[in-house]
Amino acid sequence: MSNNPVYLTQEGFNKLREEFDFLVNVRRREIAEQIAEAKAEGDLRENAGYDEAKNAQAFVEGRIRELEAKIRNAHIINEDSPSDRVALGRKVVVQEKGTNDEESYIIVGSTEADPRNGRISNESPIGKALMGKPKGATVTVNTPGGEIDFKILRIE
């Protein structure tokens, strides 16, 4: 993993720390015990329990390394700073051109993106188009289905 900044809310950072702590302090120990039990059964060449435990160990160690890098490169988003422009941590209410429907998004870093729950990455097409724009601006977003125009109604 690179040394690029990982933009996180304080909540997102706390979740990564919790997962990291769980994997290091609990899951590693559980897997080590599974490996020891499988070794005690004898022949490892045809021991599915051993293979499964080793695969789990590889996955967990990879995830630990990934989390270490994200935590090391974390930049906490200051969600309380006033902003008259779309920025990380801001809730943005937009309206698609030609509709009366309002949509709201919270702009977050890619690690915390969850589009189904209205959390979009600053690196996504919509996020990129909105970043830095003021209330009242109209932005054009290139999507796989074509261009969509959004008007920024509010920045919270």
Using brief descriptors, characterize the structure shown.
5-stranded mixed β-sheet, 7 strands, 24% strand, 156 residues, single chain, Helix Hairpins, Chitinase A, domain 3, 2 domains, two-stranded parallel ribbon, 3 helices, alpha/beta
The total number of structural domains is 2
The succession of helices and strands, N to C, reads EHHEEEEHEE
- Classified by CATH, the class of the largest domain is Mainly Alpha
CATH topology of the largest domain: Helix Hairpins
How much is the radius of gyration in Å?
22 Å
The rounded distance between the terminal residues' Cα atoms is: 33 Å
Strand content: 15-25%
Major sheet summary line:
5 strands, mixed
Please name the CATH architecture of the largest domain.
Answer: Orthogonal Bundle
Structural class: alpha/beta
Protein described:
The structure is a single chain. With 156 residues, the chain is of the alpha/beta class. A hairpin with a 5-residue loop joins strand 3 and strand 4 (102-108). The chain is built from 3 helices and 7 strands. It has a 5-stranded mixed beta sheet with strand order 5-4-3-7-6. A two-stranded parallel ribbon has the order 1-2.
